[in-house]
């Protein structure tokens, strides 16, 4: 492109990806007075079937930031427990009622509402800039060190010079790919087909959990509709498509708690969204001038809905460790390494637990034993409540002096 089609921006930190991790980090850094630019490749946040769970750990962060009351004024549903139906009986798999936090529940809120909320609060700081419809292109490098990025917005090139680039652009991160960061993939045996079913007057008052005779039908209360998930074997979707929509609806009806006639609401394939589950983790989250966090550093399974909340904990830890070096204009590789060191254990532990839970689901004996064990030892529901609600390590935002 010609030189006059290029826009130049200078910032302390450039964050690629306007998801939960990117916007939370942007808010925290701007709150400390740093010049922050967040680039988001989409024109808005309206993507269906994103992770919409806001766990007690995230709600506690919002409390510390003085944002909780305003956040909970937005439409949402609450789940104080996670339930599963096994052999026709309801089993409480996780109970949040004993957590040492302000909110002892999971809030179900459309992710676009949560992201719009964070973007609005961030925009109140004059040093915060959100660039939508802006696609990451490449790094600006000097002497082998990353000094910013180039991006494309409406056919214009934007050169953003910054002390640090944060990759928060999800499990298909262009930042981590361009940076050449290596990863380990741990695989998954399952995928999930997501779709909606309307609520009817006689429907039970379900919250969130696994329902149906074979416990592989996921249901989430979205207020005026049910968000439903049908678990399938990895790579099975193409064969299901080849067999036809009618056959798929029969498979769904066999495990769903709804009457088979409700499947008539599904009349086209575009009403179904395939979530391809994968679990991976970067070997190193950084190199000089760039750091990856959230799904860009560690893609999570949707088990427990913990991915969004783990990403937000990453963002808080990143702000806690890097705000001072950024303010001083002296961010060293060792500062970036501290973030990974802090967040490595909760990442590894969570993924280990997810892998174990996923591998057990295909084994009917273990699968049927877990609810029995929880019935026998009720304290386990509170243990799982803590692991799901708070995770293995929580982060608290540092006060701004």
Put the structure in a nutshell.
By secondary structure, the chain is α+β, with helices and mostly antiparallel strands. It has helices at residues 20-31, 56-64, 68-71, 111-122, 174-179, 237-243, 245-255, 307-328, 333-360, 364-376, 379-389; strands at 6-16, 36-39, 53-54, 77-79, 81-86, 89-95, 106-108, 128-131, 134-142, 145-153, 156-167, 183-185, 190-198, 208-211, 217-221, 225-233, 273-276, 280-282, 286-287, 290-292.
Please describe what this structure looks like.
The protein has 401 residues and is of the alpha+beta class. Helix content is 34%, strand content 28%. The chain has eleven helices and 20 strands. The strands form four sheets. Strands 1, 2, 8, 9, 10, 11, 19 and 20 form an eight-stranded mixed sheet that branches. Strands 6-5-14-15-16-13-17 form a seven-stranded mixed sheet. Strand 10 and strand 11 form a beta hairpin. It is globular and about 60 Å long. The N and C termini lie far apart (44 Å). InterPro entries: FAD-bd, FAD/NAD-bd_sf, PheA/TfdB_FAD_monoxygenase. Keywords: Oxidoreductase. It comes from Pantoea osteomyelitidis. This is FAD-dependent oxidoreductase. Pfam families: FAD_binding_3.
